[in-house]
C-alpha cells in the first residue's frame, strides 16, 4: 500500500517540530530573543493586564490572522489566569501592515485593535508607527514562522492558538525550571 505524499509531508513536519522541542516537550528557550522582547518599551506595546500579573507573554500578532483573532476573543480567559498579554506587531497577511500602523497610531489602541480584529478598517492619515516597524524587524530577524507567535519570558516561541489553560501550564512549567 502506497501512502499519499501529504502523509509523508505531515510526518516530516511532526518529526522536525519534535526534534526542536526539549525534554519537556516545549520549544527551546532563546535567551537572546527573551532579551530583545523584554527591551521593547511598554509604550510601544498594546497591553492587556489582569488585576494581579503572575505571568507575562508577548504575542506577535497580525490583525488578519484567524488564530490571532481567536486569541483576541478569548482575552478574558488569559486574564482570569493572571496572564498579561503584550501585543507586538507582526503584520504579514494582506493589508495588515497598513492596518497595524493605523492601530498603533490610534489614540485608543485597544479599541482600534478590537476593530481591526473584527475586520474593520482602521486608518490614521499620515501616520507610520516606528514601533510597528521595530517589532516587525524582531519577528523577521528571529525568523518567526507565523502568527500568533507567543514569546514566553525565557524566549520560547509558541505558534498558533494556545488556550489559556495550556498557556498557564507552559508558563508554570517554565517558571519551575528556572
TrEMBL record:
GO molecular function term, any single one: isomerase activity
Leader peptide range in chain numbering: 1-23
Domain Thioredoxin-like fold as annotated: residue spans: 53-171
One GO term describing the cellular component: periplasmic space
Xref: InterPro entries: DiS-bond_Isoase_DsbC/G, Thiol:disulfide_interchange, Thioredoxin-like_fold, Thioredoxin-like_sf
Gene3D superfamilies noted in UniProt: Glutaredoxin (3.40.30.10)
UniProt keywords, alphabetically: Isomerase, Periplasm, Redox-active center, Signal
Source organism, top-level taxon: Bacteria
Cell compartment(s), UniProt: Periplasm
Keyword Signal: yes
CDD domains: DsbA_DsbC_DsbG
Family: Belongs to the thioredoxin family. DsbC subfamily.
Functional description taken from the UniProt entry: Required for disulfide bond formation in some periplasmic proteins. Acts by transferring its disulfide bond to other proteins and is reduced in the process.
Name of the protein: Thiol:disulfide interchange protein
Species: Thioalkalivibrio sulfidiphilus (strain HL-EbGR7)
Amino acid at each position: 500500500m502506497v501512502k499519499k505524499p501529504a502523509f509523508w509531508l505531515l510526518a516530516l513536519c511532526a518529526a522536525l517540530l519534535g526534534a526542536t522541542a526539549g525534554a519537556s516537550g516545549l520549544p527551546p528557550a532563546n535567551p537572546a530573543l527573551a532579551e530583545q522582547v523584554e527591551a521593547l518599551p511598554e509604550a510601544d506595546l498594546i497591553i492587556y493586564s489582569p488585576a494581579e500579573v503572575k505571568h507575562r507573554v508577548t504575542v506577535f500578532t497580525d490583525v488578519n490572522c484567524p488564530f490571532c483573532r481567536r486569541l483576541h476573543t478569548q482575552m478574558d480567559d488569559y486574564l482570569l489566569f493572571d496572564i498579561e498579554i503584550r501585543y507586538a506587531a507582526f503584520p504579514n497577511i494582506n493589508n495588515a501592515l497598513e492596518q497595524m500602523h493605523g492601530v498603533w497610531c490610534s489614540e485608543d489602541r485597544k479599541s482600534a485593535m478590537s476593530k481591526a480584529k473584527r475586520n474593520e478598517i482602521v486608518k490614521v492619515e499620515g501616520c507610520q508607527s516606528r514601533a510597528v516597524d521595530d517589532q516587525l524587524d524582531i519577528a523577521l530577524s528571529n525568523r518567526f514562522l507565523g502568527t500568533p507567535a507567543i514569546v514566553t519570558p525565557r524566549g520560547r516561541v509558541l505558534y498558533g492558538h494556545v488556550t489559556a489553560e495550556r498557556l498557564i501550564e507552559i508558563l508554570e512549567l517554565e517558571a519551575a525550571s528556572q
